[in-house]
Amino acid sequence: MSHHPDPAGFRAAASRFSTGVTVVTSRSADGAPAGMTANSFTTVSMQPPTVLVSLKRGRTWQAVTESRRYAVNVLGADDVAICRHFAGAPLSQGAPSLIDCEGFFLLPQAIAQFGCEVVSAIEIADHTLFIGEVRWCRHQDGLPLAFYASRFRNGLGAEILPSDALAYPAEGWTI
Ligand SMILES: Cc1cc2nc3c(=O)[nH]c(=O)nc-3n(C[C@H](O)[C@H](O)[C@H](O)COP(=O)(O)O)c2cc1C
Fold this sequence. Notes:
CATH class: Mainly Beta
Organism: Bradyrhizobium ontarionense
InterPro entries: Flavin_Rdtase-like_dom (IPR002563), NADH-dep_flavin_reductase (IPR050268), Split_barrel_FMN-bd (IPR012349)
Domain Flavin reductase like: 14-154
Radius of gyration: 17 Å
Helix content: 10-25%
CATH superfamily: Electron Transport, Fmn-binding Protein, Chain A
Number of strands: 12
Keywords: Oxidoreductase
Largest sheet: 7 strands, antiparallel
Shape: globular
Bound molecules: flavin mononucleotide
Strand order of the largest sheet: 3-2-6-9-10-5-4
Protein name: Flavin reductase family protein
Oligomer: single chain
Order of helices and strands: HEEEEEHEHEEEEEE
């Protein structure tokens, strides 16, 4: 078996890990918002509350690198157009409105929002892992947008087991 999969094979295999979809925003040096779609969002630890995003070099990367702050906006199932806008396919009617909240740029319809300060930035290949300590967060009910096999999905499938049937370890899982 090859230790170096071809890019298409790697992309196809990686795409079988289903994720949610977020828009990561930050403040550029001139004060303007920058934002990009990212599904690399991961929770890292509960104590202190810590997350990470993996961003390639670009406008948002630049803003996060300079401001050392970012917000993560978790998209709902109705937000495919917003996802595409922040992935380089701008909406014809103009940019979605972002609210400036204590220096973080937020999408009001996001089903969860995290305001983060960068505590570590690790460069890997052509990406940087921005590890952020969560200064505040909020959430609201809503169907999540999911991404699987390079397709957008309505993120709530049927529940497989009643959650109380799982034997949760007392400690060990981050979330
Ligand atoms: C579903 C989806 C997920 C993406 N996730 C990431 C990601 O985690 N990291 C990344 O660097 N780019 C990701 N991208 C690509 C960026 O959103 C895209 O390159 C964007 O235009 C970069 O914006 P900027 O460099 O102008 O800030 C994703 C795109 C899509 C459609």
